[in-house]
Design goal:
9 helices, alpha/beta, Metallo-beta-lactamase, Chain A, globular, five-stranded mixed sheet
Length: 306
Amino acid sequence: MRRLWRWRLVAGTALLAGCTASSLPLASEAVIAAAERAPLSAFARSGRWNDPYPAFTVYGNVHYVGTAGVSAWLVTTPKGHILIGGIMPQSVSIIAANVKALGFRIEDVRYLLNSHAHIDHAGGLAGLKRLSGATMIASAADKPFLEAGDIGFGPSGGMKFPPVRVDRVIADGDIVSLGGVTLTARLTPGHSPGCTTWQTDAVSTDGQRRSVLFHCSATVAGQSLAPEAYPGIVADFRASFTKLRGMKADIFLANHDNFFNLGAKRARLAAGNVDAFVDPGEVLRFADKMEAAFEAELTKPQAAAQ
């Protein structure tokens, strides 16, 4: 049952009407508001993580509502919508405005999905949950980081964000269904222990059905491979590359603009090419490229030790 947040004061303490202790938000209004007003780091600015970007329809009921440098996806249905990705805490207003620009309402988002628990993809989840009242869904391995508001290691370690309560934990192959639309979770750990790739189908206005892949991430991103940033990270990466090669998708969508040539494809779409994002061979090419980069990274500490 979907519940919107309703604050009330009891003996000087802010509580949510109709919510049990286990479903109360982990971040207060004040914490969320402070994070949304906080200045961006130089790294976030250089990556255009919070630069506004015009919302647009990718294909059928799949829409881009992210920023210039970080993806967020709206999957619309007649019964409400699914939002994938929270970007930064400062990005909540941009995402909500992009949803509105497409003619939809953030209040009609029923499910929030996460790719992984780094600040540039999870930072805005608490704020988006507050606005929408949506059910937060994530993997078991990333749940502790989302609920702590800090992954604790790697390049995002120590970059705290408003913690968000995970309402539903998914495993590999689990599905999220709404309004005739189904998304399937594919765990692809490595970039984070619970990195989650999502798959669905989209149908164009002329009835053409395309398979769509929302890829989590496959970069090492400065994490230590030797010693391992977390136990099993090397094996996780290798297993995920193998799994990714077995995934078939007509449309490959990634978590950052540079991984799927967002700008160039968007330009072709605007010029009238309705299949600008369609490329069945892109998943395999991407897997090959990412695995080569991973193996090159893996040799660095080994070479230094010799």
